Amino acid sequence: MNNVAGISRRNLFKAAGVTAIAAAAAGTLTGCGKGYVNDAEDKNLTTQAPAGPSWLGSAPEIAESDITETIDTEVVVVGCRTGGLPAVISAAENGAKVLGIEQMSAIATPREDLGAINSRYQLAAFEEFPQFEIDKMEAMEDIVRYANGFVNYDLIKLWADESGAMIDWIADIVERNGEFKMWFEGSIGTENTGARDKAWATGHSPEKLTDDEAVTFGTCLRDYAIELGAEFRYDTMLVKCEQNSDGRVTGVICQDGNDLHYIRVNASKGVILATGGYVSNTEMVEARQAWNNRLKINVPVGGSCTGDGIKAAMWCGASIDPLGCAVTFNRACCKPDEVAGSDLKGKWFWFGEQPFLKLNLKGERFCNESGPYDYMLHSTIMQPHQTYVDIWDANHAAQAEAFDEVGCCRLFPFPNGAKNNIPMQVVDGMIDKLIEDGYVQKADTMEELAEKLNLPVETTVASWKHYNEMAAAGEDTDYYKEKHRLMAIDTPPFYGVRTGAWFLATLDGVTIDTNMHPCDENGDPIEGLYLTGNDSGGFFSVSYPNLLTGLACGRTMTFGRRAGMLAATGQA
Q1: For residue 406, which of 40, 105, 176, 189 is within the disulfide window of CB 3.0 to 4.6 Å?
Q2: What span, in angstroms and rounded, lies between the C-alpha atoms of 356 and 260?
Q3: Three-state secondary-structure class, residue 212
């Protein structure tokens, strides 16, 4: 018998009245009475399909007389960064006439942490570092687990199967003239440590070898695309896609960002959208993942993506993921009299991902500080004002090295010699500037630090002392943080700062199949249209598995390469 809070199912029916319960449940208890439903009751039943989202609106109507320029090409790629540049190159390599459309005035640098399995760099490392080898099935299951199953398993398998070849391909391009070297960021940081979460050695990053400031990862890829015959048009914004009578996408309408005239781009082989999600569209974020607006601190690092590609695909009949998801890093901070929220401007705080002591605004520890970035932030959703405080001491550099973090937050070189993104010395300089600007607070005692951070002094000091006692005993009896990341904070000066989310990118998007076509509500592809990157969905949900370093960017480049090939060759 089911029994909740001492109320049995039988007593519930008795108390409520069998007739009333039966009437309320008539639509669901069809197994009773041979499925009979009273006709009179049936006539009173109403159903209503959910309305479309308010942020979507309708496709703009552009008068033919307002379209004053027409361009004919075979493949057009809208958005030329992490997903779009590989798509442009791949389409050109496969013989297509290609035009890249970019709303910025120049090519921006793509993301440089690229996640993959079985690149040539990884394979070469396994003899010396066998712990870096990855079981594909286990890695895929971890991605599914992070997403609570709200994913297209075939897309994850596609990344696992093709990402290594993508890295080799990109490396050949950027290493072709000696300007870059591709590194495998060999580290897992959690092996035999008792860590709650497993890390995977998937990251790859290009290291710049030239002193020429004009050369970037982006310009290197752009120049290669131009060598292949591709063309680029800048300061140009997507308005919508165009379809023929059969529903096939035949091109796009764009608008010039300078004089605002409209442009028709006819693409005989395909349109590829890679505009980058909707991180800068507060209305869409509020509608699809409102929790991240609560955690957000606006910092001068991030994208200007407003959902243009997602909306354009949906206006063509595409469906969208059921749940929102984002890459949120605990890498933003605010002043001691401020709390996180989508209307707050703060500062970048690179050091925030290190698993030092973290307290809520009541001065209480509230979770295991070691683990995925957004797990830490999601725990903060349950805390007052969705803001917490990082606390560290004079030994922070040595402790950060001992933490053995992976991916982009690592502050020291990787075990296999790969360079980390930002060295500890640079981070110390960042911290000094944050002190000067009134964000990070510095004090000789924990009492003084608590006062400067506007935290309850008595509770904060008690939490700090208890944390140090557990560190001395070598066991976190509260939240079970692994021992090598449980270190006493006992050497003044002490430092602290209020922390929230750097909202890097949204990760949910339009439903796609393994041919990169967006799909309608029946699961049927919309021909002539391809999506990659954060315009596309089906790969992430709820939380980003950042312990697979570079997974989002690796997925984006892998699928961008595939979209370019398929559009150019017409294979799908």
Answers
A1: 189
A2: 50
A3: coil
